[in-house]
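User: Assemble these into one structure.

Assistant: Restating your components, then the assembled model:
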Amino acid sequence: LSTDELLDAFTNTIATTLLGVSEEPGFSVYPMPKFHPSEGCFYLYIPFLKSVHEQLAELTRKGLSDGEAARLFKNPSRIANLTYNFEGIRLGVQQGAYTKDDGIGLATRLLRYIGHLRADIFCQGNRNIIWAQDKVNNMTKGAPMMNLASLSQYEQARVRKCMGRINALLFNLCELLYFAHHAIGHEFHGPYALTKRRKLVVREYYDLKNEFWNFTRSLPCDKITTMEIYEDVDIYFDFFNRCRSTESLPSRLVGLCARMGGFDGKPMDNIEKLEQLYNDFLPVVTAGTNYVRQLSRRDLFKKWVEVHFSTLEPIAERLGTNWHPPESVYKMIDETDPPMELVEAFKKMSTIPREQQMAILKRIFDPRIDRPF
Amino acid sequence: LERSAASVLLRGIPASSGKALGKVKVIKEIMPGSEEKMQEGDVLVSPFTSPLLTAAIMKASAIVTDEGGVMSHAAIIAREMGIPCVTGTKQATRMLHDGQQVTVDGGAGIVYG
């Protein structure tokens, strides 16, 4: 795809995705983290995007291919969640942090990186395909898979309830750590067809222990991976790795392989181990929610900035540079309130015709456009 | 349900399928300890949900919210847990009260009393 084709496809995807949400009541309600994401992004626009731009350019100068650089981000949905910041590229240009061409280059570079990590950059087919069929076959063939049909009905119910709770708990944990951009902490991929009726969904939760969130030190592990086999249910993933299904998922679960610590980690291959995993995580997540509740908006803005910068850690390690947020960001948070322009624009969105909403959203996230309104 | 004498209390968006019977626990504000009144199997009724309600959500047999749709936090979490969820009812926190016995039909988006 050319630069224009790529950015057209991106702005169409993000506008359609956000519009799908804005049609729902409560689009302007953000109970967590006490601010609208666009307010948080305000503090990221210049320092974070500038840092991303400079570090990625440095990777290229050092001879890393786009594919190698993309893999430093771990998974495609992490990059996809960073594209929410594209609404701020023009601000960086206006304030001289980088040129307009640099801003457009940064946006297209990140989108191309996604293309190195998933088959369909924008998940237009509602699937997030990361593994080739050979890999699907290899990974499922040797895995210590729990076959629910071999269990009693009582045991099946226990496994389904527990696995459902584990996924809900880990999703909440990701949202607690990474706020509205929860897919910085997880990649759900698939569905991969196994048979006519059965499909595989893979879930990778990672970087659960984050240096900016002290409560995560008590977590029993930093990564959880699961391979889940479902029967007779349609499962969809969008660009931002949000999952939708035609039925509630646990009732359709027929096979499962869960591991602590990644794909080569300790298997949770019986009900007791799964329940232990849930029981180990729940109090830590509960302690995390109690901690987050007492943080002020400014405290939370700082966490928001820190967890976004933490996505640059593998890149900075490769370059031997510092990935932490600069002191100027903390000063900015202490001294400056975010503008309400975008928040107000999002709130008003539901009062205008759909075509106009689409057009405005496309312009907001398009780095080629100087003034979106 | 249709054959029973149960009356329709609320309609909203069908966000996660399944049916569940339980006692209502209304949590209007997310404050320290606000989830402590939730017992295992209660129906969580809230303006909206967030990760800050994790402890309450994990005990719920169903979720009903005033706000949100099929991609809201409550809906996503309920589908993962396999419990029914009705979102966007506009008035669940006003219409329902603590201890009230209700049946939530997440597939139809209806709360029966």
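Residues 8 and 112 of chain B are 5 Å apart (CA to CA).
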